[in-house]
């Protein structure tokens, strides 16, 4: 088997030898020619077979002739110089970076192009006088780097990256280091002439350094504590903000009154560690998006037909949002229908895989209703719009309240729940100690009160969760479960109900479990069948063709494909009909039950032979996953399909699994809601747009994805399909992670106890605080890191044992 | 010992210069993509120009084989 020089795929049907190299298709060869003719062959030296076969794009980008759409896509435009950013999903290696950054060799209009590899984006500045955006997109597509342009791009907001955490962290770190230097001489409490001379100067310098720390770096804690108190929640930021405020006021008073050095070193160190924890907790998978809705899937423009003054029908590229009820649209092959519509002309073969997860396309005749979100797969059709994009069957799901809520703000984290008790205890201790000293020695009372609040500042507690969860998040990342944020892990640990979508989640996208029923075919008939299927582009034909023996390829005498019905062909006096039950002309009524299944029927020489039945294949380990999850959780299957698969599922899954069929997108959402009303914590696992509501409503929503580069709806985590059978392990792992946090809490409380014992006796020296605070923080970080790595190793060993 | 004031101000000045430079570079987005530059620096600076004469002389042969299995 020869592999393509350009894309590395095996040359299956044809092998094109060109310039002493082999190519799998003309597309790959053309790319090679373009690059070779422009002295860009270095592309192939950098990496072996770096390319991607270009897709057919004729007419696809005509909408870029519409200036309003172009304007929306451009980032910058001064009439001549234009800047545009594209997502290019096929970016995958260093050759890609090289060729895309040398675009100016292919088109002189390009002034500069810069690739962001992790995000798979390219930013191009070009001269619009020399080249149009459309030509640029076509050029990219021709060399196999087709940009992904969707409705989402049309309301491009100014990209506002929030870098404030980095600034806050930098400032805290900067101040921490400098203050440490300045306070070092005073740690030893030696009175020395020159040291005493410089004392006030050093102290005020430290004060100056602490100002940006308190008023900028710590600002987030103050606002969060304020918000928490207003909604009557004692979150962890309350004691932190209290501690910071007390530290600052006490230290300032100390140096003003010349009582001592103050605690500026502890203050800045505290914030540095806290912010470091926050920073560590953020682990972003820049090429994945957890916020997508239908917009990143729908096209930005459609072809609208309208009659001009002369009465002729004219095509026009219209923005999707301007499409109204009653408009006529033209949907080409492989285009997505963005509205609910009635089919007027042509035969539609609609693939709803993004909506339902169902891989097999559905045939529609004129007069049938088509729902938004389907991809046309057979030629051009003309449709009349019933409902515009925002009101369609699918998209109105997003008008549900769920989508405007922020999930993470509702739930109380483990840290917050402990901080409630912690804060109350802390305040009690502080007041009791103060009252005690007011009686015994009033001069010390203020000292003790502030010292308690300072030393008990829950730095270590606040660090336990971020570092544990950050580590767990990274371990999940290596196991191909990509979580949106660290708080999801805590939610995962609490789940008691798991709801699965069926199609696309429990089943694979390929239907390759094909069985034959009927009269056995002769060798001659089989050959005829193979040759007939070979010329058909219908997905079922393709997958059937792929399992048949391919020998003796001949050219057929006659071949005719009727879209949505089947194929008829003949060769050497033999005729064959392949297609739907009605099409092949069978009158055998006993077979009606097969009619409801996905099947390809065959008749030769007008006699019915039998059919190939396509069964959706379930992912490996489905039964095992249900078994494992069923041990301590309720498991439910929620399917949008009819009951056709009920028996098969029931026989395969353990008893007690509830199955619900015929669930519309709204039904799924409401079903989850009703579970939650019963006090259940629900994990929803789905894949398509129709699950979007349920994913959002659930406590944790995961999406199963065969290819993380392609679309997945908004969710809390994306799980690669190959790791589907490990879900139960992952849920257990999150529980262990939470256990580690609890251990870390105990450890940090121990430090607090030591600190408080210094404080209440009135012996807290700045140097003790300066040692205790970093010591507790660092030991918590070390403990959580080692512990998570240990359980991570155990998880991997468990998984390896299973494989 | 008053030299301490001067030394301190110089050291602070240096530290602050570095600090400002860092903030400036973060703000410019230099740390947004930490991977691509590491690949980019390994590319050849200039494309190696082939001899145009020699290139036109090599005759390209194209043939299409149907793979039969």
Automatic annotation (TrEMBL), chain A:
<keyword id="KW-0479">Metal-binding</keyword>
<dbReference type="InterPro" id="IPR021993">
    <property type="entry name" value="ATPase-cat-bd"/>
</dbReference>
<keyword id="KW-0812">Transmembrane</keyword>
<feature type="transmembrane region" description="Helical">
    <location>
        <begin position="204"/>
        <end position="222"/>
    </location>
</feature>
<dbReference type="GO" id="GO:0043682">
    <property type="term" value="F:P-type divalent copper transporter activity"/>
</dbReference>
<keyword id="KW-0460">Magnesium</keyword>
<dbReference type="Pfam" id="PF00702">
    <property type="entry name" value="Hydrolase"/>
</dbReference>
<dbReference type="InterPro" id="IPR059000">
    <property type="entry name" value="ATPase_P-type_domA"/>
</dbReference>
<feature type="domain" description="P-type ATPase A">
    <location>
        <begin position="314"/>
        <end position="398"/>
    </location>
</feature>
<feature type="transmembrane region" description="Helical">
    <location>
        <begin position="259"/>
        <end position="280"/>
    </location>
</feature>
<dbReference type="GO" id="GO:0005524">
    <property type="term" value="F:ATP binding"/>
</dbReference>
<dbReference type="GO" id="GO:0005886">
    <property type="term" value="C:plasma membrane"/>
</dbReference>
<feature type="transmembrane region" description="Helical">
    <location>
        <begin position="767"/>
        <end position="792"/>
    </location>
</feature>
<dbReference type="Pfam" id="PF12156">
    <property type="entry name" value="ATPase-cat_bd"/>
</dbReference>
<feature type="transmembrane region" description="Helical">
    <location>
        <begin position="165"/>
        <end position="184"/>
    </location>
</feature>
<keyword id="KW-1133">Transmembrane helix</keyword>
<dbReference type="GO" id="GO:0016887">
    <property type="term" value="F:ATP hydrolysis activity"/>
</dbReference>
<comment type="similarity">
    <text>Belongs to the cation transport ATPase (P-type) (TC 3.A.3) family. Type IB subfamily.</text>
</comment>
<dbReference type="InterPro" id="IPR008250">
    <property type="entry name" value="ATPase_P-typ_transduc_dom_A_sf"/>
</dbReference>
<keyword id="KW-0472">Membrane</keyword>
<keyword id="KW-1278">Translocase</keyword>
<dbReference type="InterPro" id="IPR001757">
    <property type="entry name" value="P_typ_ATPase"/>
</dbReference>
From TrEMBL, chain B:
<feature type="transmembrane region" description="Helical">
    <location>
        <begin position="6"/>
        <end position="26"/>
    </location>
</feature>
<protein>
    <submittedName>
        <fullName>Cbb3-type cytochrome oxidase assembly protein CcoS</fullName>
    </submittedName>
</protein>
<keyword id="KW-1133">Transmembrane helix</keyword>
<dbReference type="Pfam" id="PF03597">
    <property type="entry name" value="FixS"/>
</dbReference>
<keyword id="KW-0472">Membrane</keyword>
<keyword id="KW-0812">Transmembrane</keyword>
<dbReference type="InterPro" id="IPR004714">
    <property type="entry name" value="Cyt_oxidase_maturation_cbb3"/>
</dbReference>
């Amino acid at each position: 088997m020869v592999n393509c020089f350009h894309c590395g795929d095996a040359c299956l049907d044809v092998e094109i030898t060109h310039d002493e190299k082999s190519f799998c298709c003309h597309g790959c060869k053309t790319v090679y020619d373009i690059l070779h003719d422009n002295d860009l062959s270095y592309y192939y030296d950098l990496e072996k077979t770096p390319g991607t076969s270009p897709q057919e794009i004729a007419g696809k980008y005509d909408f870029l002739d519409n200036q309003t759409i172009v304007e929306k896509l451009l980032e910058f435009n001064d009439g001549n110089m234009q800047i545009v950013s594209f997502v290019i999903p096929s970016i995958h290696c260093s050759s890609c970076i090289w060729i895309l950054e040398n675009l100016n060799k292919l088109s002189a209009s390009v002034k500069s192009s810069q690739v962001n590899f992790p995000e798979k984006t390219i930013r191009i500045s070009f001269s619009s006088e020399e080249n149009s955006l459309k030509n640029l997109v076509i050029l990219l597509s021709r060399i196999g780097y087709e940009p992904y342009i969707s409705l989402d791009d049309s309301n491009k907001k100014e990209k506002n990256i929030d870098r404030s955490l980095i600034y806050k962290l930098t400032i805290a770190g900067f101040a921490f280091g400098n203050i440490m230097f300045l306070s070092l001489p005073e740690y030893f409490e030696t009175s020395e002439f020159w040291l005493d001379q410089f004392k006030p100067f050093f102290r005020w310098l430290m004060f100056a350094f602490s100002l940006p720390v308190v008023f900028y770096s710590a600002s987030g804690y103050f606002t969060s504590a304020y918000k928490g108190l207003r909604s009557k929640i004692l979150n962890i930021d309350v004691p932190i903000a209290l501690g910071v405020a007390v530290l600052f006021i006490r230290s300032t008073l100390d140096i003003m009154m010349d009582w001592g050095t103050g605690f500026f070193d502890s203050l800045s160190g505290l914030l540095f560690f806290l912010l470091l924890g926050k920073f560590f907790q953020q682990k972003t998978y820049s090429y994945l998006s957890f916020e997508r809705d239908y917009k990143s899937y729908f096209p930005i423009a459609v072809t609208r037909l309208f009659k001009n003054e002369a009465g002729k029908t004219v095509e026009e590229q219209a923005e999707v949002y301007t499409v109204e009820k009653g408009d006529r649209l033209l949907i080409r092959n492989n285009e997505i229908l963005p509205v609910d519509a009635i089919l007027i002309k042509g035969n539609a073969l609609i693939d709803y895989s993004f909506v339902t997860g169902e891989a097999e396309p559905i045939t529609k005749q004129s007069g049938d209703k088509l729902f938004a979100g389907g991809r046309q797969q057979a030629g051009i059709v003309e449709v009349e719009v019933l409902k515009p994009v925002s009101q369609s069957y699918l998209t109105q799901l997003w008008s549900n309240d769920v989508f405007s809520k922020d999930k993470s703000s509702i739930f109380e984290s483990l840290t917050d729940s402990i901080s409630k008790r912690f804060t109350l205890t802390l305040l009690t201790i502080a007041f009791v100690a103060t009252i005690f000293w007011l009686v015994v020695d009033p001069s010390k009372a203020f000292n003790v009160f502030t010292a308690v609040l300072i030393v008990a500042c829950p730095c270590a507690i606040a660090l336990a969760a971020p570092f544990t969860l950050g580590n767990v998040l990274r371990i999940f990342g290596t196991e191909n479960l990509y979580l949106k944020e660290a708080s999801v892990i805590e939610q995962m640990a609490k789940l008691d109900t798991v709801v699965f979508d069926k199609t696309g989640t429990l089943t694979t996208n390929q239907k390759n479990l094909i069985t034959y029923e009927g009269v056995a075919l002769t060798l001659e008939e089989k050959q005829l069948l193979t040759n007939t299927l070979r010329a058909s582009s219908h997905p079922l034909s393709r997958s059937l063709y792929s399992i048949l023996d391919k020998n003796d390829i001949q050219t057929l005498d006659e071949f005719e494909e009727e879209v949505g019905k089947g194929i008829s062909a003949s060769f050497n006096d033999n005729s064959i009909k392949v297609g739907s039950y009605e099409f092949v002309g069978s009158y055998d009524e006993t077979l009606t039950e097969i009619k409801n299944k996905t099947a390809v029927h065959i008749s030769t020489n007008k006699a019915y032979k039998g059919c190939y039945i396509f069964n959706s294949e379930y992912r490996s380990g489905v039964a095992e996953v249900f078994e494992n999850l069923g041990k301590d959780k309720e498991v439910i299957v929620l399917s949008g399909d009819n009951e056709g698969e009920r028996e098969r599922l029931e026989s395969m899954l353990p008893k007690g699994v509830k199955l619900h069929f015929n669930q519309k997108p709204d039904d799924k959402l409401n079903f989850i809601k009703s579970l939650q009303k019963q006090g259940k914590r629900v994990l929803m696992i789905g894949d398509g747009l129709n699950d979007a509501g349920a994913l959002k409503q659930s406590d944790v929503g995961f999406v199963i994805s065969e290819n993380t580069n392609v679309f997945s709806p908004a969710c809390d985590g994306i799980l690669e399909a190959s790791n589907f059978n490990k879900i139960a392990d992952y849920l257990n792992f999150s529980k262990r992670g939470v256990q580690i946090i609890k251990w870390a809490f105990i450890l940090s409380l121990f430090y607090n106890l030591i600190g408080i014992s210094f404080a209440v006796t009135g012996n807290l020296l700045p140097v003790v605080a300066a040692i205790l605070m970093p010591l507790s923080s660092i030991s918590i970080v070390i403990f959580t890191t080692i512990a998570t790595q240990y359980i991570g190793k155990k998880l991997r060993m468990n998984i390896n044992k299973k494989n | 010992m008053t030299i301490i004031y001067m030394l301190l101000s110089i050291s602070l000045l240096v530290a602050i210069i570095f600090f400002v430079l860092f903030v400036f570079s973060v703000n410019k987005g230099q740390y947004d993509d930490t991977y691509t530059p590491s690949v980019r620096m390994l590319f050849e600076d200039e494309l190696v120009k082939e001899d145009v004469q020699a290139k036109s002389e090599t005759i390209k042969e194209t043939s299409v084989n149907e793979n039969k299995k």
